[in-house]
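Entry:
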Amino acid sequence: MGWLDLVGGAGLATLAVLARAMSADASALYPWGFVLAALGSVTAVHAIVQPFGRLGRVMSAAPLRWIGKRSYGIYLWHLPAFALATPDGRRTADVPLNAVAAAAAAVGLAALSYRFVEEPVRRRGFRATGAVALAVLIAGGGLTTATKDNTATDQIEAGRQTLENGPSPAPTDAPGPTDGPRTKDTPKSKDSPRPTARKVTAIGDSVMPAAAPALKAKFPGIDIDAEIGRQLTAAPTHLGARKQQGALVGDAVVIGLGTNGTGCERALQDAVDTVGPSKRIILITVHVPQSWQDSVNRAIREEFAGRRR
C-alpha cells in the first residue's frame, strides 16, 4: 500500500469519525469540524481518482459506482421524501421506520429519474425528452406548493406585513401592562410577575414576526428586529451594533433566538453582557422539532439562573 492510499484512507477515516461523533447541533462543527471535513474530503477524493493505488480500485466497485451516479438524485429526492414521511412536530429520529421508508423511496425515485430523465437528456437533449422533464417539474412544483400551505408560514407572513406597516405609536402617559390601578378582581401573582416595561426592543428570528401582532398589541411602540434564519451566535455582534447606534430603545430587551440552529452558552452570555445591567432582559426558550432544542433551552435556563444568583 502506497503513501497515496494511506493519505486517502486517513481522509475517509476522518469523515467516518466526524459522521459518528458529531451531531448537527455540535458547536465544535463551526470552529474546526467543517474544516476537518473539507480536508478529509479533499484527500480522499484526490487519492481515489488517481489511476494507480488500491483505494481507487476499491471505491470503483460496481455497487459504489451505481450509487455514485445517482447520488445527486438521491440528494434531491431525500428532502421531499423525508418531509412527507415525518409528521408535523416530530423529528426523523422519532419515527425510524418512516425514515427507513423515506430513504428507500429516495433511492428508488433517484433510480427512476436517472433512467427516464437524466440518461435520455444526456443522449438526446432536452427537446426529445421535454414531456418527461415537464412532468418532473410539475411534480416538484406541486410538492413546493403543498409545503407552503401551513399555519406557521401564514402566521410569519402576517407578522412580516405587520412589521412592514411600521411601529405602533408608543404610549405617553398611559400605564404599562402592569402599572395600572389594581382592582379587587385583578388577580395577584407572586410567582410570575408580568413585565412592567413600557418600551421594549425585541431581537428575534423567523418566529418573532409570527408573534409581532400580539407583541404590538401588548407593548405599543415595541421595536421588533426580526430576521429569518438569524442564528443565536450572531446575537452579540448584532446587539453590539444596535447599542453603538443607540438603537436599544426602551427599558427591556427581548431575545428570541435559537430556532434555526445551535447556540453555545458563550454566545448567549455575550449577548446578555452586551445589553448590560441597565435594562431588563427577557430570554425566550425555543420549541422546534430539532435536536438542538434541548441544548438551546438548557443554555437559556442556565444563563437565567446564573443572573439571579
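The two ends are 61 Å apart (CA to CA).
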